[in-house]
Design brief:
Strand order of the largest sheet: 1-2
Number of strands: 2
Strand content: under 5%
Helix content: over 70%
Structural class: mainly alpha
Order of helices and strands: HEHHHHHHHHHHHHEHHHH
Oligomer: single chain
Radius of gyration: 22 Å
Number of helices: 17
Shape: globular
Mean pLDDT: 88
Length: 444
């Protein structure tokens, strides 16, 4: 299986794609303004204070900007430029901010649409300019695809090790390695980590469910009864939040339709690994990868939505893999709307189920942590490969040095975004050195 992209990833969009991105950005900014949903999981817990009037719109906007800026400029923009595929950090995080920033309801969709226009019209211009430079750092950034795709496959092994110890982690690691080797040998056109990730995630969920079932049986045998408070304040809050979201069900169905259509157009990838798979036209593999990620985010999104009254812009992100596989945008819109309706209506039930399955809930936290660990290493390693491709030892010195400097300064740029941002800064610096006749580009 090829793990690198063709040089010159393009961000050319058809008229239908341009209008879809602009309309969706307008809608997500409006929904953010109404405090009905935000994409940034870190911002959602702050929404309850805003909804209940304990904080101001400007203060919430500042929180949203502070938690999102690094991901937009350090990860979303570089990933889009290097793959030619849009991503949620570039499309949805800015509309979180712009929607909250808008003082009037009518202004929010205008600001969102303006950002959508910048994405579909401005990004390609920047892409073309960067590819024409003597040191083409965007083509070099495609080196990131190999470590991201392969190291990402290991996240179930890390999650199992963290939750169930070294023995089960070792078993999962050997099993995944065997499956990757077998896939590469028997099905060379299939993404090598697809089968291994499926088995790993199923193994983690199976272990967690088995642990919860054993614990419940032990509790029943010991005569332990579940205590239910009649006036549980958390249950009341969850119920009020779920009722608030259900009141806007038609709006959420339109949102689900829009996100699913965007994914169906194959100009959008829901994650780092997915962006590279979409760019290579491996849509079924991309759907597999994003489907496995869903298990790590359902408990987080459900509990924060129930606690804050604000849902996720992409819901449980199930609309991503469904959209990749839909044969046409009309069917994608219908299915996306139905999926979002089912998610919003099921929120209360999911919250109750998660309360009875603590090990499954813990598994999602371990999955998210493992995804973060694998991607941080993969992105750093891939960025150094990109640095080597565009500038050899000098490139590694500049990019690695900027990354280490960011760490020493207390991470003014979030860790996940620091290395790709360093590649762009390093690429610009190497071009300046070339124009000063102080650097000769590495022959590709």
């Amino acid at each position: 299986m090829s793990t690198t992209l063709a040089a010159g990833a393009s961000l050319d969009f058809t008229l239908a794609q341009q209008l879809t991105v602009i309309a969706l950005c307008a809608l997500t900014a409006y929904i953010s303004h109404m405090a009905l949903a935000v994409f940034n999981d870190g911002v959602r817990p702050f929404m309850l204070d805003f909804i209940q009037g304990r904080t101001t719109r400007s203060a919430t906007t500042a929180v949203s900007f502070g938690l999102s800026a690094g991901f937009i400029f350090g990860l979303g923009a570089p990933m889009a430029l290097s793959t030619g595929v849009l991503n949620p950090w570039l499309v949805f995080l800015p509309t979180d901010i712009l929607g909250m920033l808008a003082p009037k309801k009518w202004l929010a969709p205008i600001l969102g649409a303006a950002w959508g226009a910048v994405v579909v019209f401005g990004l390609n211009g920047a892409n073309n300019v960067a590819h024409d430079l003597p040191v083409d750092f965007l083509t070099a950034m495609q080196q990131m695809s190999t470590p991201i795709l392969f190291l990402f496959s290991l996240f179930p092994v890390l999650a199992i090790t963290k939750q169930f110890g070294r023995r089960w982690g070792g078993i999962a690691g050997v099993l995944e390695l065997a499956l990757v080797v077998m896939t590469m040998k028997l099905w060379p056109n299939m993404f090598a980590g697809a089968l291994a990730m499926a088995v790993g995630v199923l193994m983690l969920i199976g272990l967690a469910v088995a642990k919860d079932v054993r614990q419940r049986r032990a509790d029943r045998a010991a005569g332990v009864e579940e205590i239910v408070l009649e006036d549980d304040p958390m249950a009341s809050l969850f119920s009020a939040s779920a009722a608030r979201l259900r009141r806007y069900l038609p709006l959420f169905m339109v949102l689900g339709a829009g996100v699913c259509v965007l994914a169906q157009m194959h100009i959008f990838g829901g994650g780092e690994a997915t962006s590279f798979l979409i760019a290579k036209g491996q849509y079924s593999e991309a759907a597999q990868v994003d489907f496995y990620r869903v298990f790590g985010f359902i408990p987080l999104i459900a509990t924060t939505a129930l606690a804050s009254g604000a849902y996720g812009i992409a819901g449980f992100t199930l609309v991503y893999p469904i959209g990749y596989l839909m044969p046409n945008p009309f069917l994608a819109a219908l299915v996306g709307a139905l999926v979002f309706a089912a998610e919003v209506l099921a929120l209360s039930w999911i919250g109750r189920v998660l309360g009875k399955l603590p090990s499954v809930r813990d598994s999602s936290e371990h999955l998210r942590s493992a995804i973060g660990d694998t991607l941080q290493l993969a992105i750093l390693f891939g960025s150094l490969m990109a640095a080597n491709a565009m500038g050899g030892g000098l490139g590694i010195l500049v990019v690695g040095g900027l990354y280490l400097l960011n760490e020493a300064m207390g991470r003014p740029v979030v860790k996940m975004a620091a290395a790709p941002a360093a590649v762009i800064i390093g690429g610009i610096l190497l071009n300046i050195l070339y124009w000063l006749d102080l650097f000769t580009p590495v022959k590709g």
